[in-house]
Amino acid sequence: MKKYLVGIWFSLPVQLCLLHFRKYQVLLLFWYILFATVTGNFMATFGAYSLYLAPEYLDAVTPLSTAIVGFAIGVFIMGWNITTFILHSRNLKFLATTAQPFLKYCINNAIIPLLFLLVYAISAINYASRKEFLPTAEILFLIGGFIAGVVLSIAIAFLYFFGADKTIYYSMSAIIKSANQRYEHLPPSKKLPKEQKELRVDWFLTAKFQLRKPREVRHYSQEFLDSIFKRHHIAAVIAILLAFLFLILVGSISDTRLFQLPAAASITILFTILIAVVAAITLFLSTWSIPVVVILYLLLNWLYQQEILDPRNKAYGLNYQNKTERPGYNRDFIKAMSADSNIAKDKAIMLGILEKWKAKQGQSKPVLYLINTSGGGTRSASFTMNTLQELDSLFAGNLMKETFLINGASGGLLGAAYFRELYLQKTLGKPINLQDKKWLDNISKDLLNPLFSSYVARDIMGPVQKFQANGYSYAKDRGYAFEQKLNQNTEGILDKSIQDYQAPEASASIPTLFFNSVISRDGRKMIISTNPVRYLMKAVVDSARITPADPDAVDFQSMFEKQDATHIRLLSALRMNATFPYVLPNVWLPTNPIIDVMDAGLRDNFGQETAMRFLDHFQDWIKANTSAVVLIQIRDRSLSDWDKPYESKSFLDLLTKPFLLLQNNWYKLQDYYQYDQLAYLQKTFGTQFHRICFQYVPEKKEAAASLSFHLTSLEKRDIQRALKNASNQIELQKLESIRKMPIKVESTGSN
Q: Which alpha helices (DSSP H) does 281-376 contain, by range?
């Protein structure tokens, strides 16, 4: 028994697997990411696993889409084999004197790849059956497509390398056989003593999966062995170069739907190239690796500072060419914008719109409805759309007519803006049923696959491509891909500029909508609206009693008046509002100095802050002209969030707790201080003020929809059912009671 165990331990497959953990461990990082992703342990909150387990191609998960991902994983496996074959060749000299050395290496290096394929298959089957509710036959077809892709990829690679191996072996076989024969006929006394090798190998698997002992190769010259490996290395480099060129090609033509590959395929091919790059730096630069990387970074940084290399994303439709009249982003300029005269002018415009809204209600004192919707990716967009459809039914189709203001963050505003546009199209005579579940299906469609595909193929690898918007030129990147996919999902009705909403908002035909984002430089809020809203730049205070603070928000339209502010695309305004860090690029704006903005949720994930400031500014008109104020909040998380406390479950958690504590409690902190603001606001309006809150609470706490731009079938179903839970039904009843008594309403206790 011991003999067999020793034989297994010192077999090439086992020793190669151990060698990967002993040397060049950085290459295992890519395997770790793949293993962790498909098992739901890497970026699971953002739905990264769905990219691999439910890859979409041409807007559907099919055997073809899984085959493409399988093919890409096959490319990665072969890239891994190629790279490690080059790195470890000096420990495997005996393979150089065999026929098809690379094929033998791949067979003996298969432990990690085979383990991954097994884990992937189990994870994919579990995902398809439990989260997508697919029948067994369809699951088998998807797995079959994946396996076919892997097999095809590896078969093509082996055909290529088999040809190379055959050519090399034929040219060297005579020398190898002659040297072997001479060495075998030497007397024992002249044969070389047993060598102490760094890697002991007693057995290896042949191309026919037979066990074979490695032969002695010290009687060959080092130059001869190196020449054999060098020929294989050249063939390997050509294969990696082809993968690199393929990604560039995909980036160049990815506007064509046929070449919009599943994100998992693009990411995996990128990993293949990165493995080769890391290995090349390690192998050829050796101890100079870190200095060369530092020099390369300094060079790239200099190119960026000189604006020779400019990867920054822009807001499409905005003028970045007018550099001489860029507004200054400084205290004096911001304070001048928020001067009392400017605030009075903007408030007068909004008061006129309020009067028009009131005139359309048919009551002397109508109820003023405001809608706040929270961030939360596609789950929030979906929950918002579902809730608005339900509320519109309750309002007998008049929800948008009776609502004056919509404000929110991130994904929730995607759903709200889409619903508002559908209502606008209906008022223009389009045959639109606002309760049609088609709209819910549209806003719930995938946005993640094209985003990551573009990130790999365009942002990192592909050549810069340009497109035109409002007469200006912009680079295509993952921000552009996101907008294009959102536009496609919503059937093109959001392909407008902010200016297109100026007339319908001014006439109160549709609710006013604020688009928010956060300036990364100082945390101030950037507010986009069809009209200037400089009164929202700071809170209402009595400066005689409280020393006024600097503005904590910036009015986009006033700031970029000379940069065609109103021509910014609606899709860009929505993207700026939903720019989750790293997933989407920050949007830089043409100020001096340059600023950039990101997701509104960093400042106000629930959309309440701006809405409450609006109510504070117009409280006199509201008290005199309305019978009640109802703040409808649609949020993607529970008000009582006791289910996910930050706990230290490991020593690493204990070490990282000070860094991650704020991040984990970010939204809770917003809830705490905003609840105080709500209490102050209720004291201002008294029994006239109500807050109705609809919450997405999953049926199973452990199976909440992911915070990403992709939803599974299970998550979509869970979100749709959330409105039926007890707490949301109570809120619907409260809202219905308010509607039945629009003038004499008592406090519902929901403030």
A: 289-305, 331-337, 340-361
Average pLDDT of the chain to the nearest whole number: 85
Rounded Cα distance, 731 and 632, in Å = 10
Q: SS3 of 476, please?
A: coil
CA distance 574 to 123: 34
Cβ–Cβ under 8 Å, residues 130 and 714: yes
Q: Which residues contact 722 (CB under 8 A, 6 or more apart)?
A: 383, 386, 695, 696, 697, 698, 699, 728
Tokens of 674: 């905003």
CA distance 703 to 708: 14
Maximum separation of any 2 CA atoms in the chain, in Å: 115
Core vs surface per residue 92-103: b (16+ CB within 10 A) or e: bbbbbbbebbbb
Q: Which of 388, 395, 450, 374 is nearest to 421 (CA)?
A: 388
Nearest to 751 by CA among 696, 697, 677: 677
Cβ atoms of 532 and 546 closer than 8 Å:
no
CB contact at 8 A, 556 and 572: no
Tokens for 466? 């340009």
State the DSSP code for 592.
B
Identify which of 636, 638, 600 has the alpha carbon closest to the alpha carbon of residue 715. Answer: 636
Whether 588 and 311 have beta carbons less than 8 Å apart is answered as: no
Task: Please enumerate in sequence order all residues whose Cβ is within 8 A of that of 298, keeping only pairs 6 or more positions apart, or say none.
Answer: none
- For 352-408, the DSSP string reads HHHHHHHHHHTSSSPEEEEEEE---HHHHHHHHHHHHHHHHHHTTT-HHHHEEEEEE
Q: Are strands 587-589 and 595-598 parallel, antiparallel or unpaired?
A: antiparallel
In angstroms, rounded to a whole number, what is the distance separating the alpha carbons of residues 496 and 317? Answer: 10
Residue owning tokens 């970074």: 297
Q: Return the closest-CA partner of residue 262 out of 56, 404, 465.
A: 56
Question: Whose structure tokens read 């059912």?
Answer: 721
Nearest residue to 693 (alpha-carbon basis) of 337, 373, 312, 260: 373
Q: What is the CA radius of gyration of the chain?
A: 31
DSSP string, 119-147: HHHHHHHHHHHHTS---HHHHHHHHHHHH
Distances 109 to 104, 237, 524, 617 between C-alpha atoms, Å: 8, 19, 54, 69
Asked, as a colleague might, if the bond just before 593 is cis with ω within 30 of 0, I would say: yes
The total of other beta-carbon atoms located within 10 Å of residue 699's CB is 13
Amino acid at the residue 364: S
Crossing angle of the two packed helices 713-722 and 377-394, in degrees rounded to 10:
40
Residue 31: HSE in the Cβ half-sphere, 13 Å Cα cutoff: 21
For the record, the structure tokens of 162 come out as 């088999």
Q: Rounded distance, CA 423 to CA 432, Å?
A: 8
Rounded Cα–Cα distance for residues 122 and 351 (Å):
61
Whole-structure pTM value: 0.86
* Coil/strand/helix, residue 577: helix
pLDDT along the chain (751 residues), means of 10: 81 91 88 93 80 87 94 90 81 71 87 96 93 91 95 84 54 49 53 58 85 66 52 60 68 68 86 80 71 84 74 92 92 94 96 96 93 94 97 96 95 96 96 96 91 78 82 92 95 96 96 96 95 94 80 96 95 94 90 94 91 94 95 90 66 65 77 85 88 91 80 89 93 92 46 39
State the pLDDT at residue 269. 84
Are residues 745 and 628 in contact, defined by beta-carbon separation less than 8 angstroms? yes
Task: Provide the 10 A C-beta neighbour count for residue 243.
Answer: 19
Nearest to 34 by CA among 149, 106, 117, 153: 117
Listing DSSP states for 92-120 in one string gives -HHHHTSSSHHHHHHHHT-HHHHHHHHHH
